[in-house]
Design brief:
Number of helices: 2
Length: 84
Amino acid sequence: MNFQESEQYEELASEWQYQMIILLKDTLAKHGVPEEKAKDIIGEFTFDFAMLHDQSEIRHEGKSYQPKICFDDFSGNLCVSSEE
């Protein structure tokens, strides 16, 4: 696996977030959640998920980890953010 900082990362991250929101929206609709209620749920979930990803840590077995997202190009390369 090769880790590559890429200018494309922000575009990929935006598309990933968009796809996640569509999945949540479709699931809420499938379960009969009214559109206005769904908007509130999606907004709250999106904000909380972004905070977890950007500013939180996950503790597991006494160690701390910061969530990071990367994208595999199916050629052995992982596109990562240049931000620390």
